[in-house]
Amino acid sequence: MGWGRWVPWAAGLGIAAHDLVQRRHALLRNFPVLGHGRYLIEAVGPELRQYVVAGNDEERPFSRDQRRWVYASAKLENNYFGFGTDNDVEHTPGYVIIKHRTFGRTAPAHPHPQGDDSVWLPCAKVLGAARGRRAAFRPDSAVNISGMSYGSLSGRAIEALNRGAAAAGCLQNTGEGGIAAQHRCGGELVWQIGTAYFGCRDEQGRFDLQRLKDGVAAAPVRALEIKLSQGAKPGLGGLLPGVKVTAEIAAVRGIPIGKDCVSPSRHTAFRDTDELLDWVEMLADETGLPVGIKSAVGDLEFWTELTDLMTRTGRGVDFVTVDGGEGGTGASPLVFTDSVALPFRLGFSRVYREFALRGLHEQVVFVGAGKLGLPDNAVVAFALGVDMVNVAREAMLAIGCIQAQKCHTDTCPTGVATQNRWLAHGLDPTLKSARLANYVLTLRRDLGKVAEAAGVEHPALITTDDVEILDGQTVARGLGEVYDYRPGWGLPSGPDQEEIVALLRKGRPAPS
């Protein structure tokens, strides 16, 4: 016991001696022992700000209020907020206001304000119908899970998302990492084909059509998405650190175990827009599936050329997924996260304009991604012309993500974005799949209720006239004016509007 009292002093003296001798940190040489407190505070700074310091609407990318709404929705807890908004509505330029109607053509479907969490909200368009694809279909959910690869996310997380997608009746995008066993737990898939062609590549890394067809035959794939770029790192290829490349991931992707997996920044199966359209038509003809593209938005030259070629040649994509430059689940250099590619609303409106000016907007299903898993953001996207929204980080929150922002370090504390077996084992796919389904159903319910408040049956029927953007206390501009939309833009075609209204009034068909 006598010696025990001297141990802390001896340890302190040892640390002080080390600090005085070392040359890497001037702070520690000048303030031995005490200087370590600064590094400790720096290390726990994000947690202190997240849980103690920051206000309800200060944090990014998702504020405390936004996370609370997702968590409560996923757990079927009370997701209401009391005592009015704490947003600074009067002094926030760009603040969105959705205008309700005193009298609308739709009546409340449920007497309780929360409605029915099993609300059916199908896509207002039939995917692939305009181009006569053999496997054209109407997606059963206007809210779907965005592309997140097995590798970036743990196998348990992918399984939770897939089981949750099956329960909610929505689609899961595979991300560019190929189709794993965890993608075959009941949920239907959109197979994303990236620049490295994982899951459909030969030994040299080139695209292999037969392997693609074999993969389609072996899994519930409903559509193919060619990823040209993504909001998190537009213009860059993906990077999966070698520490994350397990034997199972290597087998799914067709790559060596334990080595950094680098995706090229460009495709090799086609070299320009004309060849891209040839490739789209070939994939659709060989598989019968609807085929689309995913891209962040930068230079508009590509979109002008794409729509011109579609108009002149009759070839075309079945859907376009526009990813906002706000950044997503992929890790990237800070400059790409912060400053490369347009944010969603500006990027999408410019792309939509190119299609609308050529009369193509009613022939394409538009999908939006980039913080659209929050009802207010999603409503604006629908008003601008989106037919479906994809959710990624919000889905991660629903299955346990705490916004630790350690996705790129393989140390995700909740087991969502890591291949560390110990960390991943804490994620229960069965429990978390139920929470993912709850979140998707709640988001669909809230979108349906907002549409009802706006006097229409479906959020895709909300127009740019129903949304205003505030610019201080005295000025507000209509959404169509802000983004230079013409009357009628942002809506499905007349026949599509009539069909979706008829479907919703008839009610969800019984399972076959």
UniProtKB/TrEMBL annotation:
Q: Which GO terms describe its biological process?
A: glutamate biosynthetic process
Q: Where is the Glutamate synthase domain?
A: 140-456
Please give the InterPro entries that the UniProt record associates with this protein: Aldolase_TIM, GltB, Glu_synthdom
Top-rank taxon, per record: Bacteria
The UniProt GO MF terms for this protein read: glutamate synthase activity
Q: Any coiled-coil ranges, and where?
A: none
Q: Which Gene3D superfamilies match?
A: Aldolase class I
Q: Provide the family line.
A: Belongs to the glutamate synthase family.
PANTHER family from the xrefs? ARCHAEAL-TYPE GLUTAMATE SYNTHASE [NADPH]
**Name of this chain's protein:** FMN-binding glutamate synthase family protein
- Recorded source organism is Pseudonocardia halophobica
Provide the gene name from the record. Answer: gltB2
